[in-house]
Amino acid sequence: MHLGVFEVAAPQVGGTLSWSHPWSDSVHHREVEHWVGVAQLLEAAGFDFLFFADGYGYPSVDGDLPDAAVRGGLNFSGLDPMLLVPALARATERLGFVVTASTGVDHPVAMARRFATLDHLTGGRIGWNVVTGASQDTVAALFGHETMTAHDTRYEIAEEHVELCRRLWEDCWEDGALVEDKAAGVFADPRRLHRVEHRGTHFRTSGYFTVPPSPQRTPVLFQAGSSDRGRAFAARHAECVFLQGTTPAHAARNVADIRGRAAALGRDPASVRVLVGATVTVAETSAAASERRAEFEAMQTDEVAAVVYAGNTGIDLTALDPDQPLDRALAGAGSSRVGQMGQSNIDRFRRPDGTTPLVREVLAELRGRGTRGFTVVGDPGEVADQLEELVEVTDVDGFLLEAVFSPADHRLFCDLVVPELRRRGRLPAPGALPGPTLRQRLGSPGPRLPGGRRDRDRVDGPAPVA
Ligand SMILES: Cc1cc2nc3c(=O)[nH]c(=O)nc-3n(C[C@H](O)[C@H](O)[C@H](O)COP(=O)(O)O)c2cc1C
Fold it and tell me: What structural domains does the chain harbor?
């Protein structure tokens, strides 16, 4: 079972409210020592990685930032987590770090350079969670764009963006191009460097990538966003998919679909690691765990749920008829943004027969759930049972834990659940963890992206000299 922790360098994770509770320390998210503590805790417990969600945007309703988002610190305000990574890598030895970055803002050369730098500074422990971006209406306005780029076009841009990044990482520097021979005074071998030429629909580049090859070259490619286009993208590029499951059946369908699409593209479907979000509340006893969960639930309101949902989907649930099914209410609302902001959080409410629950039921479901995945509550044995069952039923490879009281919930999981999972043979013994790179940690035989140099024939440059 692979384990990561889902965090944001912000007051609030997962579209719910809990930062102001005495058990939460996430107000310290602007202090490096806070994150060093989290990273060292996870490393000692044998977690695979610490994952940071991120984005430039924030929720908006009718084109403006709702007061409730500001007052509640709900998906509003936060730091750039990428800049935390070097400090955290220095304080740890084996833990991986995954940072979310959207393909809709920066040029691939800038993105590739930052991740290659991080791969060097972490010794090959970095992953990139590729997203097309949440809250795209506010992101577009912030960056001065007239309109938000359409949903499917964003995925088209993502395809080209990642393809180009891969060429920069994999194709410019041959193995052995970096010489660093002090005696001979040769830093790099010009015969082993190749120009990358790209004239695409959305990006152009011509020249050399200036960062020498890092341990993994390409960071481990994660992906989040499970619309039809999102799953197609995952099947092609993702080594690891972050899925948000509503029900086990819904998650199982998505996992089977992603693996099936990967197989159709000639990939080994089992090599795509699928991790599902889970909010685990654990305590020594079942009753204590339920009491802890009740503390969290008492803080949640419809207003919180609606603001966060609006940021993810462009849908203001409070403006819809509560007694209409969601899809009919949406059709009546006639908003051009719906479906363009992101589809995963709409699709999650679609039943297998295509129908949707009433708007009031959707709000009730979102209260305390936000954008979180599965809810797991119990004593250590009960939690381990539920996690094992989810693995069996859905075919996921592991979990991204979304604490409600951070980092106290992480500590409880490490102290109570990790030993139980290890006893059941679901986690390796601390001394038996594969590595040293994140890619190997996640089951790949080597540090490099399999098939990474597939675009070799499209690279210009002199033939390498043996
Ligand atoms: C599980 C999950 C995690 C996500 N994490 C982020 C994130 O950290 N930052 C971000 O900008 N978008 C994030 N997104 C939003 C995607 O970028 C957004 O959904 C995008 O529009 C993809 O569209 P889709 O959901 O319709 O596939 C996430 C989406 C999902 C489903």
Answer: 2-289+372-455 (3.20.20.30)
